[in-house]
């Protein structure tokens, strides 16, 4: 037998809020880790020129995109029993909702009384934000500060070349350009010499 409608609605709402809160927390965690890696790569590229400097403002958009994908892949899914345990812990009900969720697997005459009691408690209405708290504004603020720091670092961190790697890359680029120009010139000369 299924759970009463108000109990089901309460547990579904708590589970949904918990999923979104967990997804948001994972997004913030992954984005902060990716931002730290981005900053480390930027510092290595700018201060030692060992890496090519691909760190531009548009590449900052990769951080939240990858953070969202990794958050989606790694966040913890919530079962109905976990949502029931969360409501019980919040209300201090001594596993009333958890028992209601597992009634179908139990035998006894008390099942209807448990369902009625769970429905009565659920009808009082709980705010999902109180059962599953998550301060998304603080997390979003931290991400905003991280984005500002990275933008400042991209803009004002100087390019040094203590090992001559950047100069070597520029020299190779010039040589490739010169080689392409010679190839085009050779093709043009071959076309001019070819009989029509």
Span from first to last CA? 89 Å
The main pleated sheet reads as: none
H/E element order: HHHHHHHH
Which bin fits the share of residues in helices?
A: over 70%
Mean pLDDT: 83
Low-confidence stretches: none
Q: How many individual helices? A: 8
| Class by SSE composition | mainly alpha
User: How many extended strands?
Assistant: 0
User: What characteristic shape results from the CA principal axes?
Assistant: elongated
- Taking all Cα atoms into account, the compactness measure Rg is 30 Å
% residues in beta strands: under 5%
Oligomer: single chain
Give an account of the 3D structure.
With 196 residues, the chain is mainly alpha-helical. The chain is 72% helix and 0% strand. It contains eight helices and no strands. Helix 1 packs across helix 2, helix 1 packs across helix 5 and helix 1 (5-48) runs parallel beside helix 7 (136-156).
Layout of SSEs?
Blueprint: H1 5-48, H2 62-74, H3 80-91, H4 96-101, H5 111-123, H6 128-131, H7 136-156, H8 165-193
Helix pairs in contact: 1-2, 1-3, 1-5, 1-7
Quick synopsis:
The protein is an all-alpha fold.
Descriptive labels:
single chain; mainly alpha; 8 helices
